[in-house]
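Our preliminary data section would be incomplete without showing what the modeling component actually yields. Below, a chain of 249 amino acids is followed by its predicted structure, encoded as tokens that our downstream tools consume directly.
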Amino acid sequence: MEKRQLKPALLAGLLTALMAACSAGNSTPAAPGFGSASTIVPATASVDLRSAAPFVILAGSTVTNTGPTKIVGDVGISPGSAMTGFPPGVIHGHVYVDDSIARQAKLDLTTAYNDAMGRTLNPIKVAGNIGGQTLYPGLYKSTSSLSISSGDLTLDARGHPRAVFIFQVASKFTMTTGRSVILTNGAQARNVFWAIGSSATFGTGCSFYGNLLAHQSISLATGTVMVGRALARVGAVTMQKNTVVKPGR
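Predicted structure:
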């Protein structure tokens, strides 16, 4: 009697497992930690920016611009108050200079930065230059500096638009001239987070996607385009003929 009762239960369990592993009409199993594209539960949880989310530029000391930079999103600074270069730079959004909104955004930036830097679940070690690589959703940890040079970096979401990428960089982050971050297979700029222990520097003509949370400063050289956010806790955000656009929801 006991065996006759177990057989149907075992068969049902096997069918359930097979259905979960394969999407309809596709024999390729889902990536570990994910369900179907429509019911995805990210293996790595996103970072909540809270009131810092409307900002594309947020600085601690100064916001400085040279040339016809275009910013789509809010700009804030606190506790500093110095903003230069607007115009010729153009801001399609609100500007908050050391007021209650900017101060709260800075507090929430610190919370988000500490969250991103504090993640410990299954980190993947990276070091030196990650240019030329293709990386998949997850938590990436560098115990020193990190750069994208000698090739572009591709972030592959494996068909899951809610897939999250988090990069923990202990010290500085650098992108060299002309390098790009490329999003593919459903990867979204809003779900990419770069937590930088010191400062971030971009060479001329870079193309960058993601939310950049730097402890110190952020510097964008001439022509660099960013779809994401440049958020500096302590130092300055410096721009030169750039385009910075807040990522879509």
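DSSP finds two helices and 23 strands in the chain. Residues 1-30 form one domain. Preliminary results of this kind motivate Aim 1 of the renewal.
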